[in-house]
Design brief:
heterodimer, A: 4 helices, 0% strand, B: alpha/beta, 12 helices, globular
C-alpha cells in the first residue's frame, strides 16, 4: 500500500471511536449491497463480489459437500448455496481463477472492524482487482 | 515418509488399500469398539473413526481411535470443524499423536441442525482447507497455527474429503486442487452410487494430474434395503444415486434377500471403481452395519490384505527420534 493510505490508516489507529464510525460507514454500503457479515477481512474481490460469510458454515475456500442439485443450501433449502452463486457469478465475470486462491483462516480479532482501513493499514491482503 | 503410518506405507508402496469405517458408541461402552475391531482386523488396512457424525453425540474420535489401536486396527481419526475452535483442534491433534494415531481425516462437518442437538452453536472457526493446512504446518514446520514453534510435532498422514457428485461440478475439481495445495496426502470420496458420474469426475482429476499428487480412495456404502437408498436420495444433499440400484432393491421384498442384493450391488461398485485408473484404494462405509465388512472385502476379491512393508527409512527415523 502507498504512503498516503498508510497515513490515512494511521489517522484511525488510536482512535477507536473514529474507527467505529468508519466501520459503520462501510457497513452502510456493504450491508445492503453484499449482505456483509462484518468479518473485517473482506475477500469479496476473490469471490465474485458475493459474500461467502453468509454460508451457514462460513466456508471461505469453496462449497461444502452438501450443495443440492438445484444449487440450494443443505441447511436452509430455501436459500441458494453461496458457493453455487459465487461460481455462477465468477464464471459470468471471468473470475474463476481467483477462486483458486487458498484463503487463510479468519482472524476473529478483525470482526466488526473496517476492512478498508485494515487494508490501508496493511493488516490484511489488499483486494485483487482486474480480471484474469 | 511423512508420518510412517501403515496406511502411508501401503499407499506409497503402490498397494491397493481398503479402508473401513466404524462409529464410536453413543455411550461409555468402550468394549463395543473392541468388539467391532474383529470385523476389521485382517480385512481392511485402516478404519475411519467418525467425529460425532451427523452431529449426533458419540464418544470422541480421539479416544475411540486409541481404543481401535488397542484392538489391533489402524485408525484414521476424523476431525470436524463444527465442534471445536482452532485451540481445541490443535490440542486434540497433539493428544491424538501422543496416543499413537497417525492418520487424520479433515472435514468441515455436518451442520448441527441435522443432529440430536439442533439447538447447539456451530463453531466453524476454520474450514476443511484451513484444517488441512494447519495440520501440515504443525507437521512440517513444527509450528502452531499462530506461528509459535513446538518441540515435538504431531506426525499425521493428512486426509481430506471430496464429493464427486456435488454441484457445481467445476467447483468440485477446483476444491480438490485447493485441498491438495493445502497439504492433503489422501482423499476419501463420498459413497459412489453412480459409477459413470464418478468416472467423469475422475477424468477431470486425471486431466489436472491430481491423481499423481494425492491418493484417491473411492467411497462405497453397502445398503440393506431400497428404503435406505430412497432416504439418502431424498434427505442427504449432494448424493447421487443411479435409479437402477433402487429398482433392483425395490424388486425384492424378502429382508434377507434384500441384504444379499445390497451386498451384491456394493461388490459390483467396488469392482468397477477398482478398475478406474487413478483410484488408489477403496473406503467402505457400512453405516451401523460394520459386521458386513469381511464379506464385502472377500466377495470383492480383495483378500488377503497385503503385509505392511517394514522399510529402512522408518526404522532410521525411529532411532533418530529415540536419540533426541
Amino acid at each position: 500500500m502507498s504512503k498516503v493510505s498508510e497515513k490515512f490508516a494511521a489517522l484511525f489507529q488510536d482512535r477507536p471511536r473514529l474507527h467505529a464510525c468508519a466501520a459503520i460507514a462501510e457497513n452502510l454500503f456493504k450491508k445492503p449491497v453484499f449482505g456483509c457479515q462484518d468479518c473485517g477481512q473482506c475477500i469479496l474481490s476473490y469471490t465474485a463480489f458475493t459474500c461467502c460469510m453468509r454460508c451457514p458454515k462460513q466456508m471461505r475456500n469453496g462449497p461444502c459437500g452438501g450443495t443440492r442439485e438445484d444449487g440450494h443450501c443443505e441447511v436452509y433449502p430455501e436459500r441458494v448455496c453461496r458457493w453455487w452463486l459465487i461460481h455462477k457469478r465468477a464464471k459470468w465475470m471471468g473470475r474463476i481463477k481467483k477462486l483458486r486462491r487458498l484463503q487463510v483462516p479468519v482472524d476473529r480479532q478483525f470482526e466488526h472492524t473496517s476492512a478498508w482501513l485494515n487494508v490501508f493499514a496493511g493488516k490484511i491482503d489488499p483486494p485483487s482487482w482486474g480480471r484474469e | 515418509m511423512k508420518c510412517g503410518s501403515n496406511l502411508e506405507k501401503l499407499l506409497s508402496a503402490g498397494q491397493f488399500v481398503v479402508c473401513g469405517e466404524m462409529s464410536p458408541p453413543q455411550s461409555v461402552d468402550a468394549a463395543s469398539i473392541a468388539r467391532k475391531c474383529a470385523y476389521f482386523k485382517g480385512y481392511v488396512d485402516a478404519v475411519n473413526l467418525t467425529d460425532n457424525q451427523t452431529a449426533i453425540v458419540r464418544m470422541s474420535s480421539v479416544t475411540s481411535s486409541y481404543f481401535a489401536l488397542c484392538g489391533g486396527v489402524e485408525p484414521i481419526m476424523q476431525m470436524t470443524c463444527r465442534d471445536r475452535n482452532r485451540l481445541a483442534m490443535q490440542s486434540d491433534i497433539l493428544s491424538a499423536h501422543a496416543l499413537g494415531v497417525r492418520n487424520l481425516l479433515c472435514l468441515t462437518g455436518d451442520y448441527q441442525k441435522f443432529g440430536n442437538h439442533p439447538d447447539a452453536k456451530g463453531v466453524f472457526d476454520l474450514d476443511s482447507c484451513h484444517l488441512v493446512a494447519m495440520v501440515k504446518q504443525m507437521r512440517d514446520d513444527k509450528k502452531f497455527l499462530c506461528g509459535e514453534e513446538m518441540k515435538a510435532e504431531p506426525r499425521m498422514f493428512i486426509g481430506a474429503a471430496a464429493n464427486p457428485f456435488g454441484e457445481p461440478f467445476e467447483m468440485r475439481v477446483l476444491n480438490l486442487a485447493k485441498k491438495i495445495e493445502a497439504g492433503a496426502d489422501f482423499i476419501q470420496t463420498q459413497p459412489v452410487f453412480d459409477v459413470p458420474g464418478f468416472e467423469k469426475w475422475m477424468n477431470a482429476v486425471r486431466d489436472e494430474g491430481m491423481d499423481k499428487q494425492v491418493y484417491i480412495l473411492a467411497g462405497v456404502m453397502p445398503v440393506r434395503s431400497a428404503k435406505a437408498l430412497l432416504y439418502m436420495k431424498e434427505s442427504v444433499p449432494g448424493m447421487r444415486i443411479a435409479p437402477e440400484y433402487i429398482k433392483r432393491l425395490e424388486a425384492i421384498t424378502d429382508k434377507d434377500a434384500s441384504m444379499d442384493e445390497g451386498v451384491k450391488i456394493a461388490v459390483e461398485i467396488m469392482k468397477q471403481l477398482a478398475d478406474i485408473p487413478g483410484v488408489a484404494g477403496l473406503h467402505t462405509m457400512p453405516v451401523m452395519w460394520e459386521s458386513i465388512t469381511p464379506r464385502l472385502v472377500e466377495e470383492a476379491g480383495l483378500l488377503p490384505r497385503p503385509e505392511v512393508p517394514a522399510d529402512e527409512p522408518e526404522s532410521a527415523q525411529v532411532t533418530k527420534e529415540s536419540n533426541t
